[in-house]
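In this supplementary section we document a worked example of the pipeline. Step one takes a protein sequence of length 213 as its only input; no multiple sequence alignment statistics are reported here. Step two produces a three-dimensional model, which step three serialises into structure tokens for compact storage. The input and output of this example are shown verbatim.
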Amino acid sequence: MKITKFGQCCLLIEVGGKRILTDPGKYTVAQNLVSDIDLILITHEHTDHLHVESIFKILENNPDAKIVTNNSVAKILEKSGIDCEVIEGRSTGEVCSVSLVAYDGKHEEIFGDFGIVQNTGYLIAGKLFYPGDSFIKPEEKVEVLALPVAGTWCRSVDAIAYALEVKPNKAFPVHDWFLNDDGITLFYGLFSKHLGVNNIGFIPLKNGETGEF
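The serialised model returned by step three reads:
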């Protein structure tokens, strides 16, 4: 599995000859230029994960790409005339020959009920778990975890505890677009230290970088 991090939570995942794009939000533009995309996964409706204008551009470049998401996002896409398939709850499915297991829940709390929306994480190809903006724990053994590390809802102590609970073989950071270079050095060092001593390999994947998993 090869993973390229465009930024925030927008990833290009290459596995089994398929190319999967996650959460094309408004804070990244690299996704608007990619081709040969088979599948687009969207975890929730916040604009750093869903940017409809970007979806139109991606589909212009990849007219055969399939979109998988939850019901909340589907309603938004359908208003714009964009077709999608809903896989949510604890449903399983296979789209473009890629196995998906949904883990449905709510966005983690920011403050009170502000920003609380449906959030669906996905176990992708039986290997990578991408939770979106949630600390939901999958039942399956996870080889690779896309780990949220910072944000209005995400404390380091909670993110580290979540990784220790999931116990992946490896983890890499997502949800970190607002960290400057010093912040990245600090946060990545913190996670590398505390996950490493617990036998979880932390891969400090930065924006624009590609990792082999």
